[in-house]
Amino acid sequence: MRFRAESHLRRPVDFAEVRTHGRRYHCGGFVFWIMKRATESLPHGVPDSGTRAGFVASRSAIGNAVQRNRAKRRLREVFRLNQNLVPKGMDLIFIGRRSLNGLEYAQIERDFRKICAQLFPVSTTK
Length: 126
Prior knowledge:
By secondary structure, this protein is an alpha+beta fold. It has three helices and four strands, in the order αβββαβα.
């Protein structure tokens, strides 16, 4: 599944809103913020694309530019492959922690899938 440009959180206002009104979860190598988005919070002319995500890797937490880019790339890929686990209408922020680049990719993906299973349980009854 593709992670389209309209699915990215880009504006500082959007990041601030998720951090102000959202919930924070610690997931090992990253911190995960999530907020149910109100449709009126979208910028004018932007279609509702479902789930939007933003990725943060600071110099103080991650390191130099190469390490920060690697951390964000890994988080984006985890989200891209597993975005179907998150209901539409949500805004997410992934914040890399110091230990992120030391983890195996599979562990990062397991952490994300685990938190999604806790937050969005899928009903198995038909």
